[in-house]
Design a protein that fits this description.
heterodimer; A: about 625 residues; mainly alpha; two-stranded antiparallel ribbon; 4 strands; B: about 280 residues; 4 domains; two-stranded antiparallel sheet; about 55% helix; about 5% strand; flat
């Protein structure tokens, strides 16, 4: 059965590739034939309109494409770990994810072909324009890379059993090659996508208009190497790895829930752990990647920044902040449930280098005060910090978990408060007022006392994780606090401004330093929780298969939420072009050129995510569910 | 860990702490001048935190499989979907109708400027060739005496029937300038009458007293021509140089006419600084 499923999948791959190549050849050939004056006119898609039609197929294509690019990275890492540690579970994991990937590979090709056809039918001029400017990519490099990737995927899959033992290295090499081609494909097709957001402009010296420069002077490479191309590449690459990890977690959750033997449960519990580990591990880099990506937009055109973060798309980012917070919390919840089933026999009383480093780094915020020339505040902070530390060290028996708890309490939280306070000080300094941190001083003092007491009370690792949750919740709260509860700044009136906006002296909560602080806090908290988790696993005995059943819903939630967020950010990226197909260059003169509201976007993103999950669930059932009983660990 | 605890035992202390925290935040933030919606938001955070901490101490979920698991998964997706749709709908929305009006005004340039339209339409060499072919065919048909419905003829596949643009011809030029200021989102970086962006660009309330109309036109279409005092060395908040691409001459005239009416010396609008030699 499995073989026939694979065969069907690969055959449909061939078919769609053949169709795509034929379509490309036809499109390239038609001007050359030059025998007809028939011109493709824009056609209106019934019920949904052209824009939603393109949105639906493009979003589905990107979701499948993200998986088939992210999963092989995950798979090869897993295979390599299996070879390195001699643990057959990794090899099984890699093989099972590849089985699902094979089916979804077909869906990527099918939706990709569908996407091209919808684009040609709905927006023929734009498609022609893009083909003219990116002909080497769209008609040559991209299809060829797709074919090459397909062939290498066949090779990778069908050589799996043959290249075992001493030949495993060769199989890994094929996997690496598959990933290299996949990453190149991603980078290549990102070029026109990024160009649509940030078309290359002439230098100041040339003094040419955007239109004149793109049409007459810019080289093909200039168009490819546009402002947002490389940041988009890395953002998508890391996003795809996250995606692969979470889908592996989803596969594990499904299979765990339907497992009938303890052995199977233990394996899929372990697989969920690995999927979540890689998913969240990659996710930690995403805020930074997103920041760099957004920063490039800002550098390209300073008006994009406020439009994105403070004006029309601000509520989309409000939603994004909420989603990312939920993802971090769900991941921490999974760690929490995982820790509950680890049996740690005894605590070490040895003071590790990590703890010393953590304690020393706890003093860094005080140095920050000196940097700001706030001598008294800096000295006060250091003395207070030393007092709190002294008390905690005296009472505490310095268990590993408590040491990490100290890191969380005495390093992360105060540094967050300090950065938030600095943002406030910077704001006041800009307005010509003396630089003072008075406003946040009571908060900082309160935090010190509270955290000191919490530190004293730390006797169990559970308490440490709860502190991590507290910090995550605090970071989330800062992240999602908006400047004003309004759809677009231009909609604020004299009557509504006061009742919907933050008070002037508190608006630093909505500024980027505060948001960056919140994101950094959350990332570092998750990172330290993972360190604690992995150390606990090494020191204790993990009872695979005994995890709380609700953890499987946490894995499903992580996958669903991550993919929903991906859809949301896709809307944001497209909406940044405003009423242009290609920003500032090719206007969208159709009645659909307005920005979809967050409400409409949420409905469509949800529908698409559900469709995607329906297909992925079917693929998992076909690839693994139907053959589950035959698989041996 | 909490196997013996009942739900009430798990909830009661957290409920007490959450209630006290919510009330404190509500009253405290109200005293600090936060609007009602932010007070509610803070209380909402605490309530969310309460749910999270209850979840942490909740008793283990009993395992199930088969159709129960399938139903649970479907139900879970339904809950997640409802949650995200509700959140997306609950958050404030902008008006697409208002945006569309602005787009209609801004795209007049593309709809009515034949030079721009032509340049857009004849981007590709292949399509230009096709247009020539059509014209040649038209000539042939004309010579053959056949009656032509010229409205149905499309050049190179582009529909000549673009949606009509909003009529702004009846507006006073200053009112029109105000619309241009809004349409091109100048408010995101500049302030007028205390309203607008967070100091990315200078306040404009007294600009009419400090620069001539020609200097303003020059600045908008060529941002490096001169700088407002104190903004010379800014690298991050540079004024975009895109306006020649996206703003029509008519819009520029109207915008400058509006800016020239801004003559409030009470506001510290920075003086123009011209590069030496200019």
């Amino acid at each position: 059965m499995m073989k026939s499923v694979e065969k069907v999948c690969f055959q449909s791959d061939r078919l769609i590739l053949l169709m795509s190549v034929a379509a490309c050849v036809f499109m390239m050939a038609s001007p050359a034939l030059g025998q007809t004056t028939e011109i493709l006119r824009p056609r209106e898609f019934p019920f949904m309109g052209n824009r939603v039609a393109v949105w639906v197929v493009a979003q589905l294509h990107i979701l499948f494409a993200a998986f088939i690019l992210g999963a092989p990275i995950f798979v090869v890492i897993s295979e390599w770990l299996g070879m390195k540690h001699g643990d057959p579970r990794y090899d099984r994991l890699a093989k099972e994810v590849t089985k699902v990937t094979a089916i979804l590979y077909s869906m990527t090709a099918l939706t990709g072909g569908f996407f091209v056809l919808v684009l040609v039918a709905g927006y023929p001029q734009l498609t022609a324009w893009l083909f003219n400017h990116f002909f080497p990519i769209m008609a040559i490099a991209y299809p060829l890379l797709f074919i090459a990737e397909t062939l290498v995927l066949y090779l990778y899959w069908y050589s799996w059993d043959a290249l075992q033992g001493d030949k495993k290295g060769r199989h890994l090499a094929i996997g690496v090659l598959l990933n290299l081609i996949g990453i190149t494909t991603l980078f290549v097709i990102d070029a026109p996508t990024a160009f649509m957001n940030t078309p290359v402009r002439a230098t100041e010296e040339l003094g040419m208009s955007l239109r004149a420069y793109v049409e007459t002077t810019a080289t093909f490479w200039d168009k490819v190497n546009n402002f947002s191309w490389m940041p988009m590449n890395f953002h998508r690459l890391v996003g795809n790895i996250t995606f692969g990890g979470f889908i592996a977690g989803l596969i594990a959750a499904y299979m765990y829930m339907f497992s009938k033997t303890e052995e199977e449960k233990a394996y899929y519990d372990w697989m969920g752990f690995v999927g979540n580990f890689i998913g969240i591990g990659a996710l930690l880099f995403l805020p930074l990647m997103g920041y760099v990506y957004g920063s490039e937009f800002y550098d390209y055109d300073a008006s994009i920044g406020p439009y994105m973060m403070a004006d029309q798309l601000s509520m989309f980012f409000e939603m994004q902040g909420g989603m990312v917070s939920l993802i971090f919390l769900a991941s921490a919840y999974y760690i929490w449930l995982s820790l509950k089933r680890i049996d740690i026999p005894d605590y070490s009383t040895k003071v590790s280098r990590n703890i010393i480093a953590g304690i020393l780094s706890a003093f860094l915020p005080g140095l920050g005060q000196f940097y700001n020339r706030q001598w008294a505040a800096g000295a006060g902070f250091l003395i207070g910090q030393a007092a709190v530390l002294g008390s905690v060290l005296y009472v505490s028996s310095l268990h590993l978990e408590e040491g990490l708890g100290l890191l969380l309490l005495l390093f992360l939280f105060p540094i967050g408060i300090q950065i938030a306070g600095s943002a406030h000080a910077v704001k006041h300094a800009r307005e010509g007022e003396p630089t003072r941190n008075l406003l946040t001083l009571p908060v900082r003092l309160f935090a010190q006392v509270l955290l000191g007491l919490e530190g004293l009370a730390l006797r169990r690792r559970e308490a440490v994780i709860k502190v991590a949750f507290f910090i995550l919740l605090l970071g989330s709260a800062i992240w999602v606090t908006p400047h004003a509860f309004v759809g677009a700044v231009s909609a604020l009136t004299d009557e509504t401004a006061e009742s919907l906006s933050l008070p002037a002296e508190w608006d630093f909560l909505a500024l980027m330093p505060a948001k960056n602080t919140a994101a950094s806090l959350m990332v570092l908290t998750i990172l330290l929780s993972f360190i604690l988790y992995t150390r606990a696993i090494r020191r204790g005995r993990i009872q695979w298969g005994k995890i709380d059943f609700s953890s499987q819903f946490a894995l499903i939630f992580l996958a669903f939420s991550a993919i929903w967020t991906m859809g949301l950010m896709g809307v944001v990226r497209s909406s940044l072009r405003k009423y242009f197909h290609v920003y500032d260059l090719v206007p969208d003169l159709s009645p659909n050129s307005f920005t979809p509201t967050l409400a409409d976007s949420s409905v469509l993103i949800t529908i698409l995510t559900v469709i995607f999950f329906g297909i992925v669930s079917l693929a998992i059932w076909l690839a693994l569910g139907m053959t589950k009983n035959k698989v041996k660990g | 860990m909490n196997k013996e605890k009942t739900w009430w035992q798990i909830i009661r202390l957290k409920l007490l702490v959450s209630t006290i925290m919510s009330a404190s935040l509500w009253v405290g933030s109200g005293q600090l001048g936060f609007p009602l919606i932010f007070q509610a938001m803070f209380a909402g955070y605490v309530f969310f935190g309460f749910i999270v901490f209850v979840l942490l101490d909740a008793p283990p979920l009993k395992a199930f499989s088969g159709w129960k698991a399938g139903t649970a998964i479907l139900g879970f997706y339904l809950v997640c979907s409802a949650l995200y749709i509700t959140a997306g709908t609950f958050l404030p929305q902008f008006s697409s109708e208002t945006e569309m009006e602005g787009i209609d005004r801004k795209t007049v340039k593309y709809r009515e400027d034949p030079a721009v339209t032509e340049s857009l339409r004849h981007r590709s060499r292949e399509l230009s060739e096709k247009a020539d072919e059509i014209l040649a065919r038209l000539e042939q048909l004309k010579a053959s005496g056949e009656k032509l419905d010229i409205e149905s003829v499309e050049v190179a596949g582009f529909s000549p029937k673009l949606p009509p643009s909003r009529d702004v011809s009846g507006l006073d030029i200053v009112e029109r300038g105000k619309l241009v200021y809004k349409d091109h989102e100048c408010y995101n970086c500049h302030k007028i009458g205390g309203k607008g962006g967070k100091k990315r660009g200078p306040e404009l309330d007294n600009m009419g007293n400090l620069a001539t109309a020609e200097q303003l036109k020059k600045k908008i279409f060529e941002p490096t021509a001169w700088y407002a005092e104190g903004y010379e060395k800014r690298k991050k908040d540079k004024m975009p140089d895109k306006f020649p691409d996206v703003m029509s001459e008519e819009e520029l005239e109207a915008l400058v006419a509006y800016l020239m009416t801004l003559k409030n010396p009470a506001v510290k609008t920075p003086k123009p600084v011209f590069p030496s030699g200019s």
